[in-house]
Amino acid sequence: MTLNKWIAGLLMAGGLLSCESFQQKKEGNEYYYFPDKNLYYDVSRAVYLFSLDSGKTWDSLPGNSESIPPVLGDKQVLYSNTDPVWANNESDRAQYNGQLYNVVNELSLKHAETDAKVTKAKPSGTQPQKERKRPIKKFFEKIFGKKNKDG
Predict the structure, then answer these.
(1) Range of lowest pLDDT (3-12, 38-47, 83-92)
(2) Dihedral through CA 39, CA 70, CA 24, CA 14, nearest 10?
């Protein structure tokens, strides 16, 4: 009977230790990290935390954890005491193979390319073009015909 009590005591101690280590893992605020989009969801505040410029600046957007869009990809559950949580973004990206996004520079580059094309299209050193007909004038000309200056 003593052996059974001893085994039972070991099992209970092991259970307590595993619960204690489980509690240590859960210390801190709960966040979901979506490595495919490099964004966080703060469960307690119900907001998404995201960066559009490769993690240089961060913004938030209210959200609902019950309706997380599948397009965000797989989530990793994190527990962190660090505030803001994205202060650890570099290590989170390394650990979970997170992807950086730089939408701001991509848009700036596209805008610059468009501006460059427009600039290239304008010939330099030429006389100004004749004034274009106003669209409303063209509309009336189509309906009523051109105005005769003679009559």
Answers:
(1) 3-12
(2) -160
Q: Which sequence spans correspond to the domains of the chain? A: 26-118
Residue 128, pLDDT score:
53
Rounded-to-10 torsion of CA 7, 8, 13, 16? 140
Tens of pLDDT, residue by residue over 127-137, are: 555 555 556 66
Query: In this predicted structure, which of 70-79, 120-129, 137-146 has the lowest mean pLDDT?
Result: 120-129
Using H for helix, E for strand and C for coil, what is the string for the chain?
CHHHHHHHHHHHHHHHHHHHHHHHHCCCEEEEEECCCCEEEECCCCEEEECCECCCCCEEEECCHHHCCHHHCCCEEEEECCCCHHHHHHHHHHHHCCCCCEHHHHHHHHHHHHHHHHHHHCCCCCCCCCCCCCHHHHHHHHHHCCCCCCC
- Write out pLDDT tens, residues 91-104: 999 999 998 888 77
